[in-house]
Amino acid sequence: MSNNTQLAKLAYELGEQLADLGFEKENRKFVPHITLGRVKKKINIEEPLPITKSIFDINEIGLIKSELRPSGSVYTPLKLFKLGK
Predict the structure, then answer these.
(1) For the whole prediction, is pTM greater than 0.70?
(2) Which one is predicted more confidently, 11 or 56?
(3) Which of 10, 42, 44, 58 has its CA 20 to 30 Å from the CA of residue 17?
């Protein structure tokens, strides 16, 4: 089973369990992604971004509520899931 298939299955199962708790089901197709940041001002996409390569360990996954407000985004951690052996 590919990683994308495993992620899609996880997303589906999580969506089903959240629906049981009263959350609205997501109707869009699942597209795995990671939000690394948001740009608040215009940038020249022709210039390279000053990003360096990093190696890091992931030891938890957070379920984060994101609310867009006029003053900016507000992120509220709802649940942290510890990873490990």
Answers:
(1) no
(2) 11
(3) 58
